[in-house]
Amino acid sequence: MQETQPYRRPRGGQAQRVRREPHRERGPVNWRRRLKIGGIVLLALIILAVALLWQRAASFNDAVSTAPAASMRLFGPFSPERVNVLLLGYSDESREGAFLTDSMNVLSIDKATDTTSIIAIPRDLWVEGVEEVPQNMKINEAFRIGYYEDGVENGAELAARAVNHVLGVTVHGWISVDFDGFAAMVNSVGGVTVNNPRAFRFTWLESDFKAGRFPRHFPAGTLDLNGGRALSYARTRYTNRPDESSDFARSVRQQRVLAALKQKIGLGEIGTLTDVLRGHLHTNLSVLDLGLLVSRLDIDRRLELSEGEVLEATSNTLGQYIFVPIGRSSPSDYAPLHRHVETQLSAPIASPSPSSPNGTPSP
Fold it and tell me: The domain containing residue 60 runs over which residues?
C-alpha cells in the first residue's frame, strides 16, 4: 500500500510568486483608422455587387444582343444628336400571320432638347425600290422576308432598311419582341393599369368585323390588365369605332401599356424581366444603351402618317389594300414622305412630356 506524504510548504525561493501586471490605461479610439477600414470594406462590397450585377447584365446581353455588352451605339460620346430606334412587335409561328410585324414604331430621340418623338408606321405602307426585295412588299412583310432568309437579326435589319427607304430617317438601332415576350413582361410585374378614354368593342376575326359582330370589349376608365389582356388591348384593330381601328390608335394604346409598364419596373423587377425576355427579345443595342433608353420612353410627341394628309389609299397589282405617299412622281418616289417626316421632327415641341393622364401625349 502506497504511503501518503504530508504536504510541505515550499521554502524561501521555492515559493512561487504571482506577479500582478500594472493596470494600463486604454488610449483614445482611433476613429480615423476605423473609418478607413470601414470605407475599404464598403468599397470592396460595392465592387463585388457591381461585378455580380455586371456579370448578370453581360449574360443577358449575350443572350439577346448582337452588340458587345460594353458598347454604346446610341448614347456614346460620338453618337449623333438625334438617334432613331425601330421597335418591332411580331407573332411567332404559333399564331396567325407569323413573323409579320403587327407593330412598327420609330422612337426618335433629340438629345439636344431631351425630347422623344414616336412615329407610328402603318402596316399597309407600300415599299418599292428596296434592292433586297425586288418583288416589293407591304412594310410589315419586311421582317418576315428577312427572317425566313436568315433569322431574326436579318429580319430586323431588312425592316430597318425598309423604314430608312420610305421615311428617310437613319435607323441607329432596333429592338424586336414577340407577343409572348410582351405578355410575359406585363405578367412579371403583376399586370399594369391604364386609363382607357373611350369604350370600344372588338373582334379578332375579319369576318366578324365585316358583319358588325364584336363579342369582346374594353370599357372606358381604369383597366387592370394582365399580360394577355394587355396584348389584346395593344394589338386589336377590328373595332366598332373607326378612331380605335387605325394603326395610329393602336400605337397610342401600345404606348399607354408601355408607360404603365415602365412605372411598375423597379430595381427588384429588372432581374425578373431579364429572365422572362430571354428568347423573346432581340436587339442590336447593348445593355448599356437599353438601360439608358428606358429613361427616354416618356413620349413628348406623336407623328401620324395619316391618310389624306401625307398618304393615300390604293391597291397593288394583287388587289391588296395599300398606302402610298401623296404627290409621288413614280412608284418608288418617297421624297414627299421624307420631307413630311423631316419637317415634323425638326418642328419645336411646345413643352416637353405633355402626356395627359391617360398616357397619351399631345400631337
Answer: 30-64
